[in-house]
Amino acid sequence: TYKACLFDLDGVLVDTAIYHFQAWKNLGTKFGYALTEEQNELLKGVSRVESLNRILTWANYSATEDQKSTWLIEKNENYLDLISNMNPSEILPGVLDFLNQIKQAGYKIALGSASKNAEIILSKTGLIEWFDLIIDGNKVTKSKPDPEVFLKGASGLGILPTECIVFEDAQAGVEAAKAGNMRAIGIGDVEMLRQADKVIPNFVGIQASELLQF
Ligand code: BG6
Ligand code: MG
């Protein structure tokens, strides 16, 4: 039986995916590169450094380490600016109701996010109070699709990976969950998230007891 739900943050609980996309697009203009939505899909769930590396590869641009560090700081400053006014109204529809249902059912709730800004976002939106454990980009060394972030979630909660259900909007995140031996529920488009055990478009009207079979 399942004992915990591990949630990705960006694009699952809050719609910060649009802010990351905006900030990367803005950065791309510095080296004349126009990032597309299809490419952005491949950046979801991927760490900041790894994202920049991918973009530079697509742009066929070889940057020095100094240039890269500067751009990483600039991207994040821009992103922090974009999220500066976030508030509870930006929690995605249905999320609070779903969290309430699983909490009532006795599930542990943990975060498994690649973002180093996760705590700021959880605080600004008030989501932080729901979490028993937060594993974010400051606590891992390997980017999704490596399962590290979710495995640390399971061990931090003192349960087995097979007792965890992961909620993910990113291909890399679904892969990470499966690599970690967990059940993966995709949030979004079934075409994009083929490896997930099940895909739902969002949390609106979702009955936890049906989805998680308790
Ligand atoms: C993931 C996002 O959750 O966090 C990625 O899907 C993002 O788009 C990554 O690059 C790292 O986030 P941050 O906030 O540390 O730059
Ligand atoms: Mg995500």
TrEMBL record:
Query: What gene name does this entry carry?
Result: pgmB
Give the keywords, sorted. Answer: Carbohydrate metabolism, Isomerase, Magnesium, Metal-binding, Phosphoprotein
Q: Which coenzymes or cofactors are required?
A: Mg(2+)
User: Where does the source fall among the domains of life?
Assistant: Bacteria
Question: Under which EC number(s) is this enzyme classified?
Answer: 5.4.2.6
| Name of the featured protein | Beta-phosphoglucomutase
A Pfam short name: Hydrolase
Against PANTHER family, the record matches this protein to: 6-PHOSPHOGLUCONATE PHOSPHATASE (PTHR46193), HEXITOL PHOSPHATASE B (PTHR46193:SF18)
UniProt keyword annotation of Chloroplast present: no
Q: Which residues form the signal peptide?
A: none
Q: What class of enzyme is it?
A: isomerase
Fetch the InterPro entries from UniProt: B-phosphoglucomutase_hydrolase, Beta-PGM, Beta-PGM-like, HAD-like_sf, HAD-SF_hydro_IA, HAD_sf, PGP-like_dom2
Query: Which residues are in coiled coils?
Result: none
One MF annotation (Gene Ontology) recorded for this entry = beta-phosphoglucomutase activity
Q: Which reaction does it catalyse?
A: beta-D-glucose 1-phosphate = beta-D-glucose 6-phosphate
